[in-house]
Design brief:
Layout: H1 2-14, H2 16-27, E1 32-34, E2 37-39, H3 54-57, H4 67-80, H5 87-90, H6 114-117, H7 122-131, H8 146-157
Antiparallel strand pairs: 1-2
Helix pairs in contact: 4-8
The chain binds heme C.
């Protein structure tokens, strides 16, 4: 009799439970866990950022999107950029949910939202990274040289998009 209870447990509880959890994750791939908390990234994301001057809007990224340039951008994004790495606000996966995002209004840009980010010209991103966005938490990265900013832009553009 006891053995029957054990078989019953294995068949209906021990085997199905992990399968159900696994299915929940597969069925909701947009759910991201950052800093142990689960949030849905904002998309489309309202954007009131000042427009860059015309001479910047015309600029195109002069560097090729080579693995080396994307890797250099990645290192700056996650670790080396000063005054602080982009990751703390824009998030490890670029979705705008970095560890500081709850303190910030307006929210950091969600680079995984193509509706909001794809229409922005390279020169707009360049200008904001160089000069910051006044009245927001987005700082000016004055000590990055031009190549480093273009490498960051290649990296930002390569985040997988998660529109929904
Ligand atoms: C302290 C937080 C913080 C850090 C660090 C930070 N950002 Fe931001 N960033 C923001 C916020 C907030 C916004 C939204 C600004 C706005 O709405 O105008 C933003 C916006 C942007 C934009 C959007 C520009 C546009 O026109 O929409 C880009 C590009 C950007 N950040 C790139 C970076 C890069 C690259 C780094 C690292 C080198 C970085 N950010 C570091 C907070 C941050």
């Amino acid at each position: 009799m006891k053995r029957i209870v054990l078989y019953w447990l294995i068949l209906f509880i021990i085997i199905p439970t992990p399968l159900t959890w696994g299915w929940t994750l597969i069925a909701h791939p947009e759910r991201k866990v950052e800093g142990g908390l689960e949030f849905l990234p904002l998309c489309p994301q309202a954007r009131k950022t000042v427009q860059a001057p015309d001479e910047f809007l015309k600029l195109r990224n002069p560097l090729p999107p080579s693995p080396e340039n994307i890797f250099a951008g990645q290192t700056l994004f996650h670790f080396d950029a000063k005054p602080g790495p982009c990751r703390v606000c824009h998030g490890i996966s670029g979705n705008g949910l970095g560890i500081l995002f709850r303190e910030l209004t307006p929210s950091p840009r969600n680079f995984t939202c193509s509706q909001t980010v794809d229409p922005l010209p390279d020169g707009q991103l360049f200008w904001v990274i160089k000069n910051g966005s006044p009245g927001t938490a987005m700082p000016a990265f004055k000590n990055l040289d031009e190549d480093q900013i273009w490498q960051l832009i290649h990296y930002i553009r390569h985040f997988p998009k998660e529109d929904h």
